[in-house]
Amino acid sequence: MMNIDLVFKIAGLGILISVFNMVLKQAEKEEQAQMLTLVGVIIVLMVIIQLIDQLFTSVRSIFGF
Amino acid sequence: MEIIEIVGLGIIGMIMSVVIKQYQPEFAVQLSLVVGIIIFVLMLGKISVIIDVLKKLATRANVDMVYFQTILKIIGIAYIAEFGAQVCRDAGEGVIATKIEFAAKLLIMVLGIPIMLAILESVMQLLP
Q1: What is the tally of structural domains in chain A?
Q2: Is residue A24 part of a domain?
Q3: If you placed Cys at A14, which of B22, B27, B38, B80 could pair as Cys (CB 3.0 to 4.6 Å)?
């Protein structure tokens, strides 16, 4: 099932980025940690936007907008 | 038994969201959004079945299709607005959620005005 795959993907990305974040914070590279978080959020947003588009398209076709 | 699938998805999403929330709240919000969208998309198929049955009943009862379409549009607006507002409220943006609900109410009102006018017309015709 590809649906649960997506949840695992986003959760894994979140955990991975939080680990990298901790490492970067320990190395006193606060700005780079911030940038890493931003990039992660944007990557997940790319995936989510496609999903939202799918949702809106199907709602539009079902409810006859 | 699709309900097992959905409840399992919800519980897994909830656990992951709770775990991630302490480290990265941004990802927790996105995760809950994705779980919500997946459940919504899974249910849309069922909704279309229900709507087909309703459409058949409406044609059999000779209801004007314009009214039926309006009702469908209102239901769609309500679903989408509720979804968006809840996601916003979940992320702690109550103000945006309230604005979304306000816009949805207004749009529903705009769609409903022609029906209201039609009712008023028929009442006026009934009255001598």
Answers
A1: 1
A2: no
A3: B27
